[in-house]
Write a structure and sequence with these properties.
With about 250 residues, this protein is an alpha/beta fold. The protein is built from 12 helices and 6 strands. The radius of gyration is 21 Å and the shape is elongated.
Amino acid sequence: MSTCIAPPDISDTNLSRVFGPQGILAARWEGYKPRTGQVAFAEACHTVMREGGGVLCDAPCGTGKSVAYLVPSVLRAVQRNERVIVATAGIALQEQLIGKDLPMVREMLAREVGTEWQFAMLKGRGNYACLSLVNEPEQRAEWEGNLSTGELSDLARVDAWAMGAKTGDRSDLPFVVSDSVWRMRAMDRDDCHGKSCEYYEECFARKAHERAAEASVVVVNYHLLFAHIAMRAETGRDVILPEHHALVMDEAHE
């Protein structure tokens, strides 16, 4: 089940150019035939992205739901120079969207949109290694006294990895560590030193937020989305997620 929510006004685009018998998908895959459910799903999402409001869609596995909502979402974001947030309940779907579906949609719509656009995945701060803790482990030395010899060895491996990591994202670790080990190198938002931190310019969490702020489509989980909603209700500012203009809630039954 997916929910799309968007304000009104989007340039009209005929989805048959993507999903029709002679469309982009047909040109990409020999033997392609439009699926009634996927086309109806895409048209419902596109109507909302164009005219505003919301729509609730439910469809069985194999319908092609992610492509059905991503195409209208990308058209909305790129044609209007806006941003769409896609929220999911599970990391498996997030990785599918980032690793497979969004790259495919970007390739498919290259001629349709006529401009470059980016997508990004944003996670909570606790998913990124903190370079301050990596380089100054004495900040949590008292916690490390409770770790086993094996956990201390894993901690050293995390430190070595973080020093050369590109994203600092725990999901990119080439090995598995326990939550207790990872917590030694992940900074809570309340404890973060922000701009006063010596490693602010190199901060993995800050860079992830920058990538999201430059992207047309940003994939997040529900925990981050609702934390953002709560913070925005309290402060009136976009603190956790970047400003966005439409929202897709995949796995909405969760």
